[in-house]
Amino acid sequence: MKHLLATRDLRRDDAIMLLDTAEDMADVSDREVKKLPVLRGITVVNLFYEDSTRTRISFEAAEKRLSADVINFAAKGSSVSKGESLKDTAQTLRAIGADAVVIRHPSSGAPQLLAERDWIDTPILNAGDGMHEHPTQALLDAFTLRHRLHGRDGARGTGLDGAHVVIVGDILHSRVARSNVWLLSTLGARVTLVGPPTLLPADTSMWPARTTYDLDEALADDPTAVMLLRIQAERMRDAFFPNTREYATFWGLSEARFHALGSEVAIMHPGPMNRGLEISSAAADSSQSTVLEQVANGVAVRMSALYHLLSGSQEGAA
Predict the structure, then answer these.
(1) 3-state helix/strand/coil string of 98-148
(2) What are the binding residues?
(3) Domain residue spans in the chain?
(4) Residue numbers belonging to the annotated binding site for carbamoyl phosphate
(5) Which fold has domain 3-133+296-311?
(6) What confidence tens digit (pLDDT) does each residue in 72-130 have?
(7) Which residue ranges are tagged as binding site for L-aspartate?
(8) 8: helix, strand or coil
(9) Against a cut of 0.85, is the pTM above it?
(10) Does the domain formed by 135-290 have CATH 3.40.50.1370?
């Protein structure tokens, strides 16, 4: 595996390998000294063209725990704001000796472009591109759900066979939903997508998922987990629903809907959460909520991805 660009073409064996290695990385995070020397001498550039808090900090923590040298690049205030192209930025990174690039970009396909052109010959990790994919978010979601299903001690080597995951909200603009649809399905889970008609893609016939507009009907179908998505207002140029009150009424995980669920149903959210809109505080702050587990697990999963993409290059350098 040279790059990690999407989950759509990730094989089950490779996905389980990444999750199993993340189990080892999570053990490192529990130690007093949270560091491994495996990427010592490796330079990783975090190339963020979009604002990010959780993903950028999570990648940076993962890189430092593997002893990599880290360069953070934000488009704001850089030469990008003066018109520099992705190609010129990539060639600059090659010139300064970057060994890997973690990229978040508002345009779908930008990481793929960087991986396929000869502007820079390093592993590329997609940290979210437009409305396309966010593979490490999907992996950390699967990692978290696997722990809920099998327990931390029994999770190694397992998939998500038999699980039913209901993903609710702004599916249309969500790269998290797209990556999860493919990865959860590859790992054996059944996926149901729920949202207003305007926030579901027009054609999902090729997706391994069922779609519905009725949240209550989906919640009655014995879900293992309910994953709420943020309304991505920054990607909307028109009104996609009449008002937030109507959205919360029909598609929000209200306190009443939450209490009607079984006590074993996991409540997931990639963050940041809009409380009172897509999720109630009763659900977000409950013991069933995995929101903070997802954040913590993100570091271990990104350590795993960096390790598998970069450990070979370090052995070659040695």
Answers:
(1) CCEEEEEECCCCHHHHHHHCCCCCCCEEEEEECCCECHHHHHHHHHHHHHH
(2) 54-55, 82, 104, 134, 137, 175, 230, 271-272
(3) 3-133+296-311, 135-290
(4) 54-55, 104, 134, 137, 271-272
(5) Rossmann fold (3.40.50)
(6) 988 776 666 667 889 999 999 999 999 999 999 999 999 999 999 989 999 999 999 99
(7) 82, 175, 230
(8) coil
(9) yes
(10) yes
